[in-house]
Amino acid sequence: MIDPAFEKWQSQLRKGFLELCVLVILEERRQSYGLELLHVLEQSGLDVREGTLYPLLNRLHKSGWLESNWETPVDGGHPRRFYKLSAVGKNQLAPMLATYQANTASFERLVQGSLASLSRALEAQETPP
Questions:
Q1: Which residues of 32-45 are buried (b: 16+ CB within 10 A; e: fewer)?
Q2: In this predicted model, what pLDDT tens digit does every residue of 28-83 receive, in sequence order?
Q3: Which of 21, 80, 100, 113 has its CA at a distance of 20 to 30 angstroms from the CA of residue 51?
Q4: Residues 82 and 72: beta-carbon distance below 8 Å
Q5: What is this structure's pTM?
Q6: Distance CA 16, CA 26 (A)
């Protein structure tokens, strides 16, 4: 059985990370609709469900970070809601990326330091006196 505290931590981490991913995709593509975003996330190795993505898009839209509009494909398909970064979203992206990159770099230093310490400890155990 998975610890509920771990599940909560995992959910919080994933939520913020996916928000950043969506903003990065929209910055690159200028605009996209939900199913297209799902495919891009899947192609990058992230397993995201519609039940996760659409509430996330709604939150970002309500917070003012995204703008949206409905478009009907010229070939007569179903209307699609396209999302794009708002001015507020564009302003948030740079500090979000900087924070993510700084946290990732700090984490990598911690992991490398821990691995180096572990390696030294193992070498000390294996070296005869």
A1: bbbeebbebbeeee
A2: 999 999 999 999 999 999 999 999 999 999 999 999 999 999 999 888 888 999 99
A3: 100
A4: no
A5: 0.82
A6: 16
